[in-house]
Amino acid sequence: MKVSSFPSGSTATNFPSSRSVQGTTSSTVSHTQDVFAAVLEQVGRKGYTSAQSVDDSSISSDSIAGTWDDWFQEFCSTRYSFIAGSDSPSVREGKTATDLRDDYKKILCNAYNNGAYADPQSYVRKLSSEDLSAIQQVHHLANPIQPSSLSAEASLNLLLPPDAQVDENLDGLTDVGAATTFRFPDSNTPSEVRKAWEATTQELSDEDRMLYQMQIGSQLLLANMHFDENGEYLGSSEPGDADWVNPQASPDFSYRQQATKWLDYLDHFSSQIAPEQYQRDHAFWSNFRNNLSLFDA
Asked: Per residue in 72-86, is it b (16+ CB within 10 Å) or e — as a string?
């Protein structure tokens, strides 16, 4: 399974880059999620579960343009490079930050005005190569977009700003073009869990935050590994397989129980873990569990 990290969107198998990892959600990110959740709701789709309600009458191509402008202004310098080359395959030769901002803004507004969010697959297939190149750069996609091969979710997320993209089929992964990404929190994470996560991670470094995101993500991978009665590894289910499972989509899934399992694991293997790591990880999962209780998650 090729799973890239959080919003960076390459098709490599690496987990997250620091560029794509945030601590406490900024007001700009929250507003972006609120606006595009409202856009999706207009056509019967679901945006971020944690999004706040937005007056439907306030949603227009102008408000979408302004939302994108605000998001891009905040994150352009930290998430984007404009130096073309082999290390940046999505960067368009001779294009500036202003070009990227304006090109994608036009794509978003045209998508809204032309009903693209109701049928993203058909709409993406009609886009010009220039538009597809701009979208590729916005989402840091390693390869040129091939619209005919994309699912509805993968197509839809091309038409959403990076922080507003959704896991529409509830498989625990967010498809963006040909990229399959794991994110936590993602669009389906309950608001109370998101608050607990942010309270727990607000003082952490990007590196430590990524570590614990990876640990949460590992549960999805483990749930799809298969072993025989002797514990021998038989193989893994892949996204899209009939037997692929997402534990977090289960009605009885408990984030508190997941935190407890991590604490039990640490205690069981404490003799094999460096003392500093044990103390750091134990403190994190204890704090996360406490915050989950505090926010009634």
From this structure: bebbeeebbebeeee
Domain layout of the chain by residue ranges: 18-181, 191-294
Going from the C-alpha of 44 to that of each of 37, 41, 119, 161, 224, the distances in angstroms are 10, 5, 11, 19, 30
What's the CA gap between 130 and 241, in Å, rounded? 34
Q: Beta strand pairing status for 174-176 and 179-181?
A: antiparallel
Q: Which long-range contacts (CB under 8 A, 24 or more apart) does 282-287 make?
A: 284/200, 284/204, 284/208, 284/212, 285/259, 286/259, 287/200
What's the pLDDT tens digit per position in 49-60?
Answer: 999 999 999 999
| pLDDT tens-place string over residues 92-146 | 999 999 999 999 999 999 999 999 999 999 999 999 999 999 999 999 999 999 9
Q: Is the N-terminal amide bond of 185 cis, ω within 30° of 0?
A: yes
Q: How many CB atoms lie within 10 A of CB 44?
A: 8
CA 45 → CA 117, 174, 183, distances in Å?
8, 15, 20
Distance separating alpha carbons of residues 13 and 45, to the nearest angstrom: 29
Amino acid (one-letter) located at 149:
S
Structure tokens at 250: 């289960």
